Amino acid sequence: MPLRLACLLAPGPQTVEHALLAEALGYDRVWLADSPALWQDIWARMALVAAQTHRVQLGTAVLIPSLRHVVTQAAAIATIADIAPGRLTVGLATGFTGRAALGQHKRLPWAFVKRYVQQLRGLLHGEQVEVDGALCQLIPSLGFMPPRPITVPIFLAASGPRGYQVAREVADGIINPGTDFPECIQSAWGTVLADGEALTAPRVRAAAGAAIALRYHMAYEYGGARVDALPNGRAWRERVERLPEATRHLGVHFGHCVELNEHDAACVDMTAAKQLSFTGTADELRERLATMEAQGATEVMFGMMGADVPREMRAFAQLVGR
């Protein structure tokens, strides 16, 4: 089966327009990101996308269990399942910017995520589940939700032995590299270069700069001084650490996956774009896609950034022959 084509959109005013374009271009799936401090509500925008598209599959990449009570999450999933039956996949994770932008820097324990997925499946199947010491159940009056069981694939953005173990136990697939998973979604952040286009060109910086900055944000959140190993990483860290500790997380994550914030703009080196993001010529990126597929990826999820998202969507579609 050929590598499936997907895109990841940050929920906002143009999400429906971009999702409709993705469907027209032959994308297999549209994923929406979830970070309440940064973007519009994922479920509100997902409902609009679900109502106005017809073929394309939909996904959440990724929900963080601590952001919503599991019954609230189940009701949102049931809503989309009613609007677009059979088209939703739910992706969850232990947390990154969705938590860090709220000042919560520790990732959730995998045991918490496992229990959340089990509770979520139980609720969607119509069962009573214990949550915080009380029994919960979806108990809608006739006609207010689809009949249970509501069957929705659940994927985990997992890494490390424990994450892979939990994914094998409770998930239908994995987001980002994994082994022995029949469904493996690989994310890719960057841009396709036009013939002769320089890495330092303003368009490339706008489209791929935030993809490089993502590496800085991750390294800092998960390893502090680990960010020093990136080009100008120490200078980036020294800048953000001059911010008051109480508000530092706001400065670090502003613009995440959309634009360069002031600290990123001062330090990100675009000459490293090919090494630190999915950026290159069409031929170079096709080679990288072939490697991803050989390593077990079944779908590539392109993160859409920059001022001209339609251009990025068309370029990635052409990359895989759509």
Provide a quick synopsis of the model.
The chain is α/β, with parallel strands linked by helices and 322 residues long. The protein has helices spanning 15-25, 42-52, 70-83, 97-100, 110-124, 160-170, 202-223, 233-240, 248-253, 262-267, 273-276, 282-294, 309-319, and strands at residues 4-9, 29-32, 57-63, 88-92, 129-131, 134-136, 154-156, 173-175, 184-189, 299-303. The protein has two domains: 4-182, Alpha-Beta Barrel (TIM Barrel); 202-273.
CATH fold-type name of the largest domain? TIM Barrel
Number of strands: 10
What characteristic shape results from the CA principal axes? globular
Task: Output the radius of gyration.
Answer: 20 Å
SS element count, helices: 13
The chain-level structural class is alpha/beta
Return residue spans where pLDDT drops below 50 for at least 5 consecutive residues.
none
Strand content: 5-15%
Major beta sheet, strand line-up: 1-2-3-4-7-8-9-10
**Average pLDDT level:** 96
Main β sheet profile: 8 strands, parallel, barrel
**CATH architecture annotation of the largest domain:** Alpha-Beta Barrel
Q: Percentage of helical residues?
A: 40-55%
What is the rounded distance between the termini? 15 Å
Let me know the CATH homologous superfamily of the largest domain. Luciferase-like domain
Write the H/E string, N to C: EHEHEHEHHEEEHEEHHHHHHEH
